[in-house]
Amino acid sequence: MPNTIAPSDYLSLLLSNTPIIDLRAPIEFNKGTLPGGRNLPLMTDVERAKVGHCYKHKGQDEAVKLGHQLVGGDVKAARVQAWVDQVSAQPETVLCCFRGGMRSQISQGWLKQAGYDRPYIEGGYKAVRQFLIEQTEQIASDSSLVVLTAMTGSGKTDFLNQRQDSVDLEGLANHRGSSFGRMLTPQPAQIDFENQLAMAMIRNQLKTKQLLLEDESRLIGRESVPLELFNQMQQAPQVILERTTEERVEQTLKDYVCERLAAYSARDGEELGWQGFSEYLLGSLERVQKRLGSLRYNQLRQQMLQALAQQQQGSLDGHRIWIETMLLDYYDPMYRYQQSKFNGVIEFQGNWQALHQYLDDRAKRVNG
Predict the structure, then answer these.
(1) What angle do CA 29, 139, 96 make, to 5 degrees?
(2) Contact indicator for 218, 130 with CB cutoff of 8 Å
(3) Structural class in CATH, domain 4-129
(4) Architecture of domain 144-368
(5) What's the CA gap between 21 and 361, in Å, rounded?
(6) What band does 55 get if pLDDT is binned at 50, 70 and 90?
(7) Per-domain residue ranges for the chain?
(8) What is the β-pairing status of strands 4-5 and 120-121?
(9) Alpha-helix runs per DSSP H in the chain
(10) pTM above threshold 0.85
């Protein structure tokens, strides 16, 4: 019998952060992989396409024969060596292809000939992916879900990250969810976002029945929140974090000015970092130009340019001016409109400390 990992072991495999050799071609891998997956393919995209064409027109036996011709000799040796290097570095590594079929079996056999007997995942990527989708849907339905909402600039992400019963959707999506929310690094593939979200929800459920999520639209940047989870969020009770306008201005200044400049400078150096940071701020404002209208956009852009000039002289006060204007005149009306459409239960609203205490007490109740 082949050495395999059964579906009953999927959860323990994923929770242990087991490294996985993803044998699929790069075109498959780039659409999404399993947590821990590293692409060391059996076939390149071109080789896979040739074998697939042969299978379609000449059948399985001829396709297998062609596959061995394409991946033989020095090519085969190099690919097996890549697997050996991975297993030598991380002996717990397992193998995975799309369905847990021929690619896994062939690769396992070649690796065993090289002296390493490693299991492959039964059902492959497709089965584990379906398992994670079902976990997200089940946890969304079964957990005591509560949604955190607040006006823009209230520090919802910082609040969430102080808690043990929360999942940070924006962190997983690598996007802060607003026109200024684009990060320096790209967002993950949609499937990778969904897989990491499922794992975060699983780990949360192991600690508590309470699940705290930030109020989000369906799209976070380009990532789409799974429909079943989004529908549950729309129906869940809300808690509201209250912050003063001054607190929100300072929070926004920290998040989108001080920390962003530091990130750009760390990546690109002082001069190019400043240029990238300035372009980020002005570009973010430009993305909402139509919503702002020409007059208000031009006023805010001028304020932002003045703020950048003042920042180079050591003052952040100019940023506080445009930030407060954006919060009060742009983001706050949108928030009030969205809240006016909410017909569910608002369980609690209060400041930072009071809301933490409420959620702590709530978690004790739902956990029994």
Answers:
(1) 25
(2) no
(3) alpha beta
(4) 3-Layer(aba) Sandwich (3.40)
(5) 44
(6) confident
(7) 4-129, 144-368
(8) parallel
(9) 10-15, 26-29, 45-58, 60-70, 73-89, 102-113, 124-142, 156-161, 169-173, 190-207, 227-235, 245-253, 259-268, 270-286, 289-292, 294-312, 317-326, 332-340, 352-366
(10) yes
Contacts of 264 (CB under 8 A, 6+ apart): 184, 272, 273, 274, 276, 277, 280
Return the structure tokens found at 133: 């989708």
The token pair at 110 is 């070649």
Phi, psi angle pair for 172, to nearest 5°: -65, -35
Reading phi first (left if > 0) and then psi (alpha if -120 to 50, else beta), residue 90 is in: beta
Q: What is the DSSP secondary structure assignment for residue 269, as one 8-state letter?
A: -
Residues 199, 155: contact at Cβ < 8 Å? no
Give the model confidence (pLDDT) of 69-111 as tens digits: 888 999 999 999 999 999 999 999 999 999 999 999 999 999 9
What pLDDT shows up at residue 151? 96
Q: Is 199 exposed, middle or buried (CB count within 10 Å of its CB: 0-12, 13-18, 19+)?
A: buried
C-beta of residue 63 within 8 angstroms of C-beta of residue 51:
yes
Residue 223, SS3 per DSSP? strand
Instruction: Give yes or no for a contact between 334 and 151, defined as CB atoms under 8 angstroms apart.
Output: no
Q: Which of 54, 96, 97, 258 is catalytic?
A: 97
Q: Could you tell me how far CA 48 lies from the centroid of its own chain?
A: 29
Would you tell me how many other CB atoms lie within 10 Å of the CB of residue 104? 26
* 317-326 helix and 245-253 helix, angle to the nearest 10 degrees: 120
Active site residue 97: yes
Q: Residue 350: in which H helix or E strand, if any?
A: strand 346-350
d(CA 259, CA 252): 10
Closest by CA to 82, choosing from 27, 39, 52, 115, is 39
Q: Which residue has the higher pLDDT, 2 or 317?
A: 317
pLDDT tens digits for range 328-366? 999 999 999 999 999 999 999 999 999 999 999 999 999
219/34 Cα distance (integer angstroms): 22
Task: Answer yes or no: are the C-beta atoms of 160 and 168 closer than 8 Å.
Answer: yes
Residue 181: closest CA among 250, 275, 255, 240: 255
